[in-house]
Amino acid sequence: MSVVDLLPIALLGAVLGMDVVTFPQAMISRPIVAATVAGAFIGNAPAGLIIGALLELLALEMLPFGASRYPEWGSASVVGGALYASEFGEPAGALTLSIVAALATAVLSGRSMVWLRRMNASRATRQRVYLERGSSSAVTSLQLFGLTGDLVRGFVVTLLAMVAFGSLLPLVVSEWGIDARSSRGVIVATCAAVSAGAIWKIFHSVPRARLLFISGLGIGALMLVMG
Amino acid sequence: MTQDSSAQPRVELPFGTWMSMYLRLFAIQGAWNYETMLGNGIAFCAEPALRLLPGGMKGDRYKRAMVRQARYFNAHPYFAGVAVGALARAELDNVSPQLIERFRTALGGPLGSVGDRLVWASWLPLCSLLALGAFGLGARPVSVILIFLVTYNLGHFALRAWSLKVGFDRGLRVADALAHPVLRRGPQYVGSVAALLAGIAIPLAAREVIGGGRFLAAAIILMAIAGGLLLARFGERVEGWRLSLAVLTLFVLFAVIR
Predict the structure, then answer these.
(1) Are the C-beta atoms of residues A15 and A151 closer than 8 Å to each other?
(2) What single string gives the DSSP state of each residue in A178-194?
């Protein structure tokens, strides 16, 4: 991808990266949305949706409680969606590496959120004199600094990840030695196992959760057989 | 309790002020940091109401209120509107600074735990599973996105509006509102639906990705259930997505070197 192709993707990663914490938390950053939109940017929304659904299965486990540290799925899903959607014909290996790229980006992006929060704290310390005078412009400037910083953070993370993994993807695809169907099977089994474990962790305290989940599995299995 | 609110008429929020506070709530975490956490955001969101204090933005009460509201605070972002509304009400009612400080300290924990249970651990997973189910049934990309975003944000936008309204209407007596049956029992009901939906949506989504081949799909889904059981039983200290990153990276290396 050329720089001209990368810029809109990086901008998308910036906007959706912001949604995770700073603005507006409408969950446009969830993988099933972000990766699909990134795929649509490339002109291949169905491919974006496939990787988005897989990443969503993995993201089910992550609950962004309070000050806990967590992966940042917004920019990461844009990277995964854009990479996979750009490999038209869905060659073997493209989906696996795109998911690995998204997960690695989620780690990097999660760390960059921690750095930004430290920068926000440091700026708040520098503004303390004004805050202690009740300055509304100091309060507003801190908000704007944080929001802008988050936008820049998402842009840089997405751009770096796209450059790094965008160059790696064709190399990996050309050397891939396992057929596409088996490759998908490994990914699906991994993502579905993680999501089933996540559902148990989240809902095990709900009365009759086990019975409900097993009943759901029965209905799901029936739909698979019938369909 | 030092409070001389009875001495002055109750201030009502003009619609423009309320809307300004509501819209600012969407950026309440803009300056989130490990020291004051949500504090600056609380001041940012309450600020339009504080302009109604005697003397306006140049008045002494406005400045003292801004200092108080910008201090440390933490809560769930969607429920922070309760704090913003209640604290703005308290400032406008001229409640004593000591009482406001105590109220701030007492409010953060409950707003965090209610929000975490209802939103992060119930509503969000339910909406994700709904979208995954739609994907599994072959819905088009636009439909999947709309199902997720519309469902999730109906709850999200309404919750932010409710929290600001209930906070401002009830002021320091807002604790009663947090005992609302929807907030107490909601997570349990939502969790029940989500557990059922998870059983349906995960296999369907898995089949949709694999594409065709019922036996292959069934075998993979059985493997996934076994893996899920193992993760659920022994995975308290393991984050599944990290494990996936390790497994899939090894798989990429294997597939390339092979």
Answers:
(1) yes
(2) S-HHHHHHHHHHHHHHH
Task: Round to whole Å and give the CA distance between A33 and A37.
Answer: 6
Q: Is the pLDDT of residue A90 over 90?
A: no
Facing B224 at nearest CB: one of A61, A118, A189: A189
State both tokens at B18.
């309320």
User: Cβ contact (<8 Å) for B192 and A212?
Assistant: yes
Q: Residues B79-90, buried b or exposed e (16+ Cβ, 10 A)?
A: bbbbbbbbbbbb
Cβ–Cβ under 8 Å, residues A196 and B225:
yes
Contacts of A107 in chain B (CB under 8 A): 245
Q: Which residue among B66, B144, B218 places its CB closest to the CB of A139?
A: B66
For residues B116 and A66, is the Cβ–Cβ distance under 8 A?
yes
ipTM reported for the complex, 2 dp: 0.97
CA atoms in the 13 A half-sphere facing the CB of B39: 24
pLDDT one-digit tens code per residue, A16-28 = 999 999 999 999 9
Write out pLDDT tens, residues A99-151. Answer: 999 999 999 999 999 999 999 999 999 999 999 999 999 999 999 999 999 99
Task: Name every chain A residue with its beta carbon within 8 A of the beta carbon of B229.
Answer: 196-197, 200
Quick: pLDDT tens for B150-189: 999 999 999 999 999 999 999 999 988 988 898 999 999 9
A213 CB-contact burial (10 Å; exposed 0-12 / middle 13-18 / buried 19+): buried
> How many helices, marked H, and strands, marked E, lie in chain B?
10, 0
| Residue segments in chain B with a per-residue pLDDT below the cut of 70 | 1-9, 212, 235
Minimal C-alpha gap between B232 and chain A (Å): 5
Instruction: State which residue of chain A sits closest to B155, comparing Cα positions.
Output: A26
pLDDT at A154 > cutoff 90: yes
